[in-house]
Amino acid sequence: MAKEKPSIPKGTRDFSPEEIAKRNYIFDTIRKIFNLYGFKPIETPAMENLSTLMGKYGEEGDRLIFRILNSGDFLSKANAKHINAGDSQKVSAQICEKALRYDLTVPFARYVVQHQNEITFPFRRYQIQPVWRADRPQKGRYREFFQCDADMIGSDSLFNEFELVKIIDKVFVELGISITVKLNNRKILAGISEYIGFADRIIEITTAIDKLDKIGLEKVNEELVERGLTAEAVDALQPVLMLQGNVKEKLASLRNTLQTSPTGLKGIDEMEEVFSLLESAPTQCHVELDLTLARGLNYYTGAIIEVKANDVAMGSICGGGRYDDLTGIFGLPGVSGVGISFGADRIYDVMQELGSFPEDVLTFSKVLLVNFGPDEQKYAQTVLFKLRDAGISCELYPEGVKMKKQMQYADKNQIPFVIIIGKNEMETGQLAVKNMKTGEQKLMDTEAVISYFNKIQ
Length: 457
Description:
Layout: H1 17-36, E1 40-41, E2 47-49, H2 50-53, H3 58-63, E3 67-68, H4 80-84, H5 88-95, E4 98-100, H6 105-114, E5 123-132, E6 144-153, H7 159-175, E7 179-185, H8 186-195, H9 202-209, H10 212-226, H11 231-241, H12 247-257, H13 262-280, E8 286-289, E9 303-309, E10 318-323, E11 337-343, H14 344-354, E12 367-369, H15 374-389, E13 394-396, H16 403-412, E14 417-420, H17 423-428, E15 431-435, E16 441-444, H18 446-456
Parallel strand pairs: 1-5, 7-8, 12-13, 12-14
Antiparallel strand pairs: 2-4, 3-4, 5-6, 6-11, 7-9, 9-10, 10-11, 14-15, 15-16
Helix pairs in contact: 1-7, 1-14, 7-13, 8-13, 9-10, 12-13
């Protein structure tokens, strides 16, 4: 009987050494810039209590949380009536007390509350870890993926939003990706909801209009009606959704429309301040006001940020926003925070499509020492250890096979230099260093070799 081929769950992936090298390039670039801006690293567990996560992401988000079955006889806590009735939601709550984290922001809020006496506010933290979502796998959307988050918590200053946009700009300039940063404000969206007479439906309204780019205006309007808005309210919303002009013109027009909404006017003031700060320190990327940007997370209360790649069809590759009282859910009210999250997996896919990874990112060993046999191997070993002591990544071919095979190995592994040590080289102490790209070959002693490689590192 034929054995079933091994496989992995849909929406997850294995990563080869080459893929890991490219992903590490992204992580290292982002981490370097987080450090440059004074952020401190933390990590949280892969799993959280289900109660920590539920209710923080909206109805759609809650459905995508991966629940973890309780250990042992998990059915012992389940209500038989709910099982027989097929009420999976209630049964799930009874047999699952833990879940895989959906994002890094809610666990961070929980961390802040638990460790509030150890933290100096305002607290600048970054976190680079995987998250899990029970989503339908498709291009750019996985069930297991990495997020790279940076948050400032304990400060209301809009300078923080400005800093985050500057971080986004610097990261993508270094990664070689042309982007557009879209900004909006949840208070503006609340003001719009008031303006059309449905202030109590902001969640339904923002969830629908957040899909504008994906499903188009007509489908969004249909969804708004399905969610209970009147035709008159949907009509009143159209001029706002289709507002044209530059940032100043859009905000001026909006100020006139929302003049009876203190909340909406506050959001406009905040956006004007952020764009004013950006005017004083321009970014290389394009930054625009997008009034249809909603981002479907319930905890956002102020600025909303989303980043799109200009040259590749892909969903958002970075996003975030201001949350005024996320820690209040866990017992620490009145602590405002703002943060962004880079989607490393989508960034990887964009860079792959653009071919924008540096050539040397796949160079693991810089030097291969050729092995001609037992005597030459012993001599080569002493050179090998001296090179490694000098911080030069290198390897010795483990067997004395034909020279052609060893050269092919160097080529396939993109090793840029080969050191050839035969009888003559052992007698003279002059090692033959071959550049695999140009074919050029030089003779030099071990110290000169070390000096040469240190110069070109």
